[in-house]
Amino acid sequence: MVRIPSGEFEMGDGQDSNCPKHQVYLDEYWISVFCVTNRQFQMFVKETGYKERPPDNRRDQKLEHPVVNVDWEDASQYAKWAGCQLPTEAQWEKAARGPDGLIYPWGDEWDENKC
Asked: N or C terminus: which one in the chain shows less Cβ crowding within 10 Å?
């Protein structure tokens, strides 16, 4: 987990009316740096008896790869079990943009060679 300090940030990209730029204040929070793996999610299912929707179709996935094909309810229940919570849209965007408010990790211009 990484600490995201409290404060304002500019949310939205301003490219269209669905995503206008605006200032948002967030209190300090923590967010995971790493994705939940298939192994971690399987442990949650096994320990809790949680019934996935749809049932586990990740049997052929590598255990250390990020879990896929989970819906919001699955993710929310996993987070609750793990003692966390899912980030809000604003929390996710602030963490993803970093302290400089970048659109991409390398800057504000798209560069397919840096993906």
From this structure: C
